[in-house]
Amino acid sequence: MKKRALVTGGSGAIGAAICARLAADGLHVTVHANRRLAEAKHIAAGIRERGGAADAVAFDVTDAERTAAAVKALLAAGPVQILVNNAGIHDDAVLPGMKREQWTRVIDVSLHGFFNITQPLLLPMMATRWGRIISLSSVAALMGNRGQANYAAAKAGLHGATKSLAIELASRGVTVNAVAPGIIGSAMTSGLFDKEAIARLVPMKRAGTPEEVAAVVAFLASDAASYVTGQVISINGGMA
Fold first, then answer.
1. Model confidence over 161-171: pLDDT tens digits?
2. N or C, which end of the chain is more exposed by having fewer CB within 10 Å?
3. Can you give the pLDDT at residue 196?
4. 208 vs 146, 182, 189, 202, CA distance in Å?
């Protein structure tokens, strides 16, 4: 029986690449979206056309009740042993001009969303004595970035949660890690960095690809990474 993976924010560029890679590695992948269910279904259909196993779901990870109901429905088919917390948003502004709603919403998605989706999956995962929890962070959480105090704070919070949860689950065969991408070519970053900015900021002089992020996530989700836990792994082309 295929292990089951849930990828939140799976309808975006990085999420879609992660879904495709995990499915290619033989997992049954549930592609999550919030408002973009049609896109999630399209990604799942593409995986099935290539011979993989996938379905799609939609719910707002900041809504604790809806998330709990969605998780209950997923668990009816068996434990989810691989969780990729990829859902996240940014709403940029320098802090002196940032609205409270901008701060709260970004924190809600990354941190409250992490709790809402992860916590109810833990006991069923632990009962199998094998699991992988991988959260998508950002270089902003490690280096800071002008106009992204909310985003950096939210993603840095994931680092603490990751390290603490890794300790709690280490004896149960469940690993917990985070990956921190730098500048990755996607719709989310297009227009934010031109070629000159990328050349200045990134020693490799190029943006990364969603597939390069997915490759690291796939490793952390595999048996080969059974002794890797509590880590934050950067994928940033050499940014200090």
1. 999 999 999 99
2. N
3. 86
4. 21, 8, 11, 10
- Looking at residue 57, what is its pLDDT? 97
- Active-site annotation holder among 151, 179, 229, 232: 151
Longest dimension (CA), the chain: 53
Pick from 33, 84, 73, 80: which is nearest to 56 by CA? 33
Residue 227 annotated among the catalytic residues of the structure = no
In sequence order, the 6+-apart residues with CB closer than 8 A to the CB of 71 are: 117, 120, 121
List, for residues 134-149, the tens digit of each pLDDT value: 999 999 999 999 999 9
DSSP 3-state of 120: helix
pLDDT for the residue numbered 188? 58
Phi/psi at 52 (nearest 5 deg)? -90, 180
Task: Tell me how far apart the alpha carbons of residues 66 and 120 are, in angstroms, rounded to a whole number.
Answer: 12
Calculate ∠ Cα 210-213-216, nearest 5°: 150
pTM beyond 0.85: the answer is yes
Q: How many residues does the chain have?
A: 240
Amino acid in the structure at residue 206: R
